[in-house]
Specification:
The complex is a heterodimer of chains A (469) and B (277).
Chain A (H helix, E strand, L loop, with lengths): L20 H4 L12 H10 L7 H5 L6 H9 L3 H11 L3 H7 L6 H4 L11 H14 L16 E5 L3 H12 L3 E5 L8 H4 L8 H13 L3 E3 L10 H7 L3 E4 L5 E2 L12 E3 H10 L17 E5 L3 H12 L4 E5 L11 H10 L2 E3 L2 E8 L5 E14 L5 E5 L5 E4 L2 E4 L3 E2 L3 H5 L25 E3 L2 H4 L4 H19 L2
Helix pairs in contact in A: 2-4, 2-8, 4-5, 5-8, 6-8, 9-11, 9-18, 13-14, 14-15
Chain B lengths: L1 E10 L2 E7 L1 H6 L5 E5 L7 E9 L4 E7 L3 H8 L5 E2 L1 E6 L10 E7 L3 H13 L3 E8 L8 H7 L2 E6 L6 E2 L3 H10 L4 E5 L2 H11 L6 E4 L15 E4 L2 E4 H4 L2 E3 L5 H8 L3 H17 L1
Classes of the chains: A alpha/beta (469), B alpha/beta (277).
Bound molecules: flavin-adenine dinucleotide (2 copies), iron/sulfur cluster (SF4) and FE2/S2 (inorganic) cluster.
Chain lengths: 469, 277
């Protein structure tokens, strides 16, 4: 049934200011600049406060969206923060990286009119207000210690949220992280220009302020196994180890110099700050012409980093068409504006090297879309005889990741799927192993920040119930 | 932060550091390595566990000064700290009773071969060790190696000490001289390649410890990938020990050269900063 257009509804979604594409393509400063006070008020006032609260059902952690938007409209920021944070512990991060267009904004009533409320942008504004007014925060009241100890392995969004919630319930938490910086993909994967590291650091600092002991440089499975943690010190263990293992294409030429996994490329840039080489010691090769293979957020991030590092031409090579691109729409748009060239329906056949084993070109197939596959998307098939050459000197493979087998292979009694993910109850995160919970990408495979966060939260509740039973 | 308890120069360009790392020392096994960062802007560099003491809670690292990170490391003194230290990484070396094994250590590779020789001997093997360096000044740990070997052969490329020649020469002689059940070779990539070529005609299983460039050391980036028996492997988690007869040495050599230009740029810059201090 067609809804009658209500004359009062404002369909002018307030745009968020962004850095000029020509300028931002050469710097690492944040692309999206955030709403001003007036903008946020205007956008918030578009919300019609529907009783059906469609947006809430679209949000993986069911943030009370109309309520926090109402508080913004009324100018009551502390209240907006309170409502938002009661369901979402990392709003400054989610406001920036959630795929809102497939979650809350997709189902927003105004989406039918192609003008959904910009929930993500409002969320970001509220969270940034909170970060900027920390002194006004009332200190978190911690309950008396329960005397129970929990080890959280991995400091990505799943681990951070699980650790924070457990600490707030009075448990003693130690969070172990393999890398020298906490934050998981938020630190080593997603680039500064999309998610400033100081935003992530503020969240890590908050978790520490709750008394969580953060142990960096600790590769669990090597330094201590899960069984040792359970035997020696801890009452429960949460696995939030993510899906960090890169997939390659398995085509000729993949070990040539100049071929990177997206993980390596992004880790060098973000974690090791290779974009500041030689001020920082870690180098990176960028090349003049870069091909990034894949169509997700990881591919967009790699391509946009390559551009900022000075590449002259950057291609996204994707085997399906534009409509199937899994990346956030906003980032695809940003990438295009910055001058990234999209090669759709293209798939590499082999990478070709010069006499010094450096990449000099890539041979590709032209693809066409055939019958739908298991995922419901149309399967790309090779067009016979369509091979063509692309002149490139760096190739970044961004095909997705699977969980690291380090923990599964050193822990007795976990149930592991053939994709390498850990089997855990969807509602509680409980694994089949006694006193062990898991959540985030290690359970779902590469997914989203908000789903990892939600899993961390649910697991914390379940661990608490177990510990206080 | 990881405190340096003791530091000495084994040769003018090789540093030995004893570092406080109690949890790590408890878990260390021969053949494993650590990754360190010398300072906040530093690169993550892998170094093999040359020794450890679980009781004292320390590990020993031996590093040759070849570039910015290892030069910075060389300036540190007892009492200073390493900004980051993570490990033990990689799979431990296979330690079993094989029979007679030859342990070959070339250059700074003498340090990592030491705990392997010791473990192999403890496991009941007859251990013949061959250590070599370019010249007398670059040789170290002869005494330590003697203690863990049934027989020790020393070579220098220029003949400035002990036998003149490359480590492959006594290796070949040993292979010709009697039954050898296993060879472990650690040192510069070329040396490991030639040791593997030397043992190949004798069909003696030969293990090498690859020193690919690494970032995380946990299997997360694929930077360290190499080709062994036609399959891509990650040196940090599938190794660093591999069958020397199966390694594609060309790929291994090429991949070590990726950043030659940047390494030089970084070192030049660091040196000029040091001079102006
Ligand atoms: C480049 C990139 C861009 C992305 N963009 C978006 C986006 O725009 N929006 C979005 O919603 N999602 C995005 N994602 C996905 C999102 O980041 C992940 O789904 C999310 O971070 C998963 O969280 P997690 O806590 O499960 O794991 P992770 O964030 O992967 O964290 C796991 C942590 O565990 C550590 N660890 C692993 N093994 C061990 C061990 N044995 N011992 C100790 N520590 C260990 C790892 O070092 C890591 O720090 C992106 C991912 C990437 C790679
Ligand atoms: C598993 C493993 C164990 C090692 N053990 C030892 C050891 O016990 N003692 C020792 O002296 N050396 C060891 N190395 C080599 C050592 O890591 C390099 O010499 C060091 O990283 C050089 O850093 P640099 O900044 O001083 O020099 P750079 O100027 O950066 O490099 C000099 C050369 O070192 C290699 N290299 C550079 N960066 C890396 C990196 N991130 N990872 C690995 N290699 C790199 C390259 O081949 C390069 O050409 C080991 C390497 C590996 C992979
Ligand atoms: S669905 Fe859209 S318009 Fe309705 S309450 Fe939610 S945000 Fe507001
Ligand atoms: S060093 Fe990153 S996977 Fe081996």
């Amino acid at each position: 049934m067609e809804e009658k257009p209500k004359s009062k509804i404002n369909l002018n979604r307030v745009e968020m200011p962004r850095q000029d594409p020509k300028v931002r393509a050469h710097n690492y400063k944040e692309v999206a600049l955030g709403y001003t006070d007036d903008m946020v008020k205007e956008e918030a006032s578009r919300c019609i406060q529907c009783p059906k609260r469609m947006c809430v059902s679209g949000c993986p952690v069911n943030v009370d969206i109309p309520e926090f938007i109402k508080a913004v409209r009324e100018g009551d920021m502390p209240e907006a923060v309170r409502i938002l944070k009661s369901k979402n512990a990392l709003p400054a991060i989610c406001g920036r990286v959630c795929p809102q267009e497939t979650q809350c904004e997709e189902v927003c009533t105004l989406s039918k009119k192609k003008a959904p409320i910009a929930i993500g942008r409002i969320e970001r504004y509220v969270a940034d207000w909170d970060l900027g007014n920390k002194e006004k925060r009332s200190p978190t009241q911690l309950p008396p210690p329960t005397g129970k100890k929990v080890a959280v392995i991995g400091s990505g969004p799943a681990g951070l949220v699980c650790a924070a919630d457990l600490a707030k319930m009075g448990h003693k938490v130690t969070m172990y992280e393999a890398l020298h910086t906490a934050g998981g993909v938020l630190m080593y994967g997603i680039p500064e220009f999309r998610l400033p590291k100081k935003v992530v650091q503020a969240e890590v600092d908050y978790v520490k302020s709750l008394g969580v002991d953060v142990q960096l440089d600790s590769v669990m499975g090597k330094l201590a196994t899960v069984d040792e943690l359970l035997a020696n010190e801890f009452n429960a263990v949460f696995l939030g180890t993510g899906a960090g293992l890169p997939m390659f294409l398995d085509i000729p030429g993949e070990n040539l110099n100049g071929v990177y996994s997206a993980n390596e490329f992004l880790t060098r840039v973000n974690l090791m700050k290779a974009y500041l080489f030689p001020d920082y010691d870690t180098p990176i090769k960028v090349g003049k012409k870069v091909a990034v293979i894949g169509g997700g957020n990881v591919a967009m991030d790699s391509a946009r980093c390559a551009l900022r590092l000075g590449a002259e031409e950057v291609y996204i090579v994707y085997r399906r068409s534009r409509t199937e691109l899994p990346a956030r729409h906003e980032e695809v748009e940003n990438a295009e504006e910055e001058g990234i060239i999209f090669k759709f329906l293209t798939n590499p056949k082999q990478i070709i090297g010069d006499d010094k084993s450096w990449v000099k070109s890539m041979e590709c197939y032209q693809m066409e879309l055939g019958e739908p596959d298991a995922s419901g998307r149309r399967r790309p098939v090779i067009k016979p005889g369509s091979e063509f050459m692309m002149d490139v000197d760096v190739v970044v493979v961004a095909l997705g990741t699977t969980p690291n087998p380090l923990i599964p292979s050193t822990t007795k009694g976990l149930d592991i799927t053939k994709h390498g993910t850990v089997v855990a109850d969807e509602q509680t995160g409980k694994t089949v192993k006694d006193r062990v919970w898991a959540g985030g990408d290690v359970v779902t495979g590469a997914a989203t920040v908000i789903s990892a966060m939600g899993a961390g939260k649910r697991a914390a509740a379940s661990i608490d119930a177990f510990l206080t039973k | 932060m990881f405190k340096i308890i003791a530091k000495e120069k084994l040769t003018p360009v090789i540093d030995c550091l004893r570092v406080e790392a109690p949890a790590l020392a408890k878990k260390a096994k021969a053949g494993q390595f650590v990754i360190i960062r010398v300072d906040e802007v530093g690169e993550r560099i892998p170094l093999t566990l040359a020794d450890w003491d679980a009781k004292e809670g320390t590990i020993t690292l031996v590093a040759m000064e070849v570039g910015t990170s290892t030069r910075k490391l060389g300036l540190l003194k007892a009492g200073d700290v390493l900004t980051n230290l993570v490990g033990p990484l990689g799979l431990p070396s296979d330690i079993e009773k094989f029979g007679t094994v030859v342990c070959v250590g070339g250059g700074v590779g003498i340090a990592p071969i030491h705990p392997i020789a010791r473990s192999l001997r403890q496991a009941g093997n007859k251990v013949i060790s061959i250590i070599g360096a370019r010249n007398k000044d670059l040789l170290f740990w002869e005494d330590k190696m003697k203690k863990v070997s049934d027989e020790l052969i020393v070579t220098t490329d220029d003949g400035s000490y002990a036998a003149k020649g490359l480590v492959t020469e006594p290796l070949k002689a040993k292979l010709e001289g009697g039954k050898i059940d296993r060879v472990i070779a650690i040192g510069p990539a070329v040396m490991m390649k030639f040791c593997s070529l030397t043992t190949k005609p004798f069909n003696v299983p030969t293990i090498v410890s690859l020193n690919s460039i690494m970032v995380d050391g946990t299997g997360m980036c694929g930077c360290c990938r190499i080709s062994v028996g036609g399959k891509t492997k990650f040196a940090c988690v599938d190794g660093p020990d591999f069958d020397g007869h199966q390694v594609d040495w060309n790929i291994a050599f090429d991949r070590q050269k990726v950043y030659l230009k940047e390494e030089k740029e970084s070192l030049d810059r660091w040196e000029s900063c040091q001079c102006s201090k």
